[in-house]
Automatic annotation (TrEMBL):
It comes from the Eukaryota. It comes from Cyprideis torosa. One of its GO terms (molecular function) is protein serine/threonine phosphatase activity. Residues 232-260 are annotated as: Disordered. It holds the Pfam family Metallophos. It is an enzyme of class 3 (hydrolase). PANTHER family: SERINE/THREONINE PROTEIN PHOSPHATASE (PTHR11668), SERINE_THREONINE-PROTEIN PHOSPHATASE (PTHR11668:SF496). The keyword Hydrolase applies. GO terms for cellular component: cytoplasm; nucleus. Its EC number is 3.1.3.16. The lineage of its organism: Eukaryota, Metazoa, Ecdysozoa, Arthropoda, Crustacea. This is Serine/threonine-protein phosphatase. Residues 244-258 have a biased composition (Polar residues). PROSITE patterns: EF_HAND_1, EF_HAND_2, SER_THR_PHOSPHATASE. Keywords: Calcium, Hydrolase.
Amino acid sequence: MMFKMYGQAWNLPVCGVHEHSAAKSLKLSEEKDSQGITRELLRAAKINAEEQRQIYTQFITRSRPHVCFKKRQFGEFMTMLGWSVEHLQALFRSFDSQRHGCLSFKHFIMGLAAVEPTIEHGGTPAEIRCRYIFRYYDSNQDNKISFREFRSMVADIRRCKGQTLSLDELQREAEKSAMVFGSESRATLGLHEFLTAVGQLKFRGTSLLLRSPISILRYLAGVGLHEPVLANGPAGEGGGKSPRSISSDKSGPFSRSSGLSIAQLGPGGGGISPVSGNPAAVTESPFLPPRVPRLGESFELAAHSVKVKKTGMVVNVSTLWDFEGTEAINGTLNIQRDTSFNRLHSFECFSDSFLPNDILKALRYFERSIKGAGASACAPVPFSAATAPGSKASGSTKSPKDAFTWGREIQKTALAQSILQLCHQVEEIFAQEPRLITITSPVYVLGDLHGNYEDLMCFEKVLWRLGPLLTPASFLFLGDYVDRGAHGLEVVSYLFAQKMVAPHKFFLLRGNHELRVVQKTFTFYDECLNAFGDTLGKEVWEAVNKAFDNMPLAAVIDKKIFCVHGGIPPPYMGGGMVNAILDIPCPLKEPEKEAPLAWEIMWNDPVSLETIWPPEAANTIRQNQGFGPNTKRGTAHVFSEDALQDFLGRNSLSHVIRAHEVQQSGFQLQPCGRCLTVFSSSHYCGASNEAACILCENMKLRVIRLDTA
């Protein structure tokens, strides 16, 4: 019996698990393994009896009190072999050939052998590996590979060979490769067709796929046991850069010298890819436990102490060593003046000389009213003659001005130059984020602002008066920051500045008004020219739009809530999978031409078929998988309740939060209670509507309406 090989010959402790139940779980019957497939695979991977014993010990220890690996235990183990989080769902699917949702020791060690980097790819081992590869790319587990799934496989093979392909080149290469399977293979590809084509050498390159970044043999030998593994993947992988082409400077289990993760290229990763914009960020995953301190890691004192008024306003920021010699610091305690690289951003965020703080300080001045001639103030006017380098002006006297105006003392050229610098710097931050970002609750989600700086300040005072850094929540804005309202420049400057101060807590998505052609039709282009003149105004406008070109397009909160400006994509674009958004190129200057999927999610609207007239139009939508022409906007599509339900089920999501449409109460609950529209600009275009936001916390979606009176 095979169990003798796995258990009895080792005399292993089973760590509190009853030995009979362990034997029952691990026993490989001769009937099911009559051809010795397991032995042959282990032999090909060079996993000998001693190494099997070590793997068994780890398996039992990590799986207790069960005798199988569930997704979390599997994820914990495979990340130690260098697999990144975005690979784990597809990898688990490839191991779980019986679709039990958990792995016995037999299936676990067979999977380890199949992905061993040194295993030969010929004969029986090659056929077994191809079955694993097929399951890996079969993201919806329908025993067929769609063309998009096949295209992901082709992309990985090319990348393993160190070849660079654009998206168009990849499409043509995948279409050419699909022809070897027959005329019908463009739609779907079955396992038998796949194995036959590979066995007859009609389709080549599978030997490069599904190779573990770290050999299990190397791991067991003690190399790599203590290597740090980021949540985004092994060293050098998953830095959060957006895919600009199919080639990259990253490395991983699907490449030799270059390549994007499979989750960024298509549905091979399956479901929602937990991709983070920051390499150091810990990404939540069903395969991994919540963030816990690593070995040797502990809490540390923050460098700054913050003083706050009872109104919630920050009035003073001091470093801890500013308190030396006072009763606040015990005389025996030596506070080290730590200005290391790790604390550099912290020091910048609280520094008056940090550009975003300069901009925010100027916006405070813009927000205030100053009454009476010769009004005095202890601080000089930002970007005025008094603050210019080498100026001898005191700046202690301010001219009167109304709230939400700049007054006469601001030097517009100096202000414009600072905005230009801000745009260039925030553009780089956006470019490092994936097109689909993942966020962990609590999160406040805000909709369209449309140049309504007054309402934005109301939200600030209610939700993040201490600033995003000192607020225990994240903030997600769904786009449409400019046009129609009077203060688009100020809204953009504020949001960009806060993004630089708290890049991992302030998230900005792109809406349909973050497009040059739309802004020239409406007001933002003219607003920039009126503020700074034709030449400098055009320069500022273009700098703002270059930052817009790099903005993410969608977000997922807690792996369950899809957030976007417009609406869901149709199923004939990227298979209707949210992963497809990761394929969208960056920067994206003309979405309608360069990335139709981006155009759709920025413009689409939900619709109730009962309100469609004539009835024939509703029937057309039903016949087109729940999508129809968006006649109200003259572009993109509307989607029905059925289309929404299909999208949510396909991606294992619970809700969609979107913006894009003004709502009288600031929000609207739409089809089947699973789609929420939020609008965050009150009195829009002179109307009487309210502003609102959505709080996602503790598995609840709570609407907060803002009283701006």
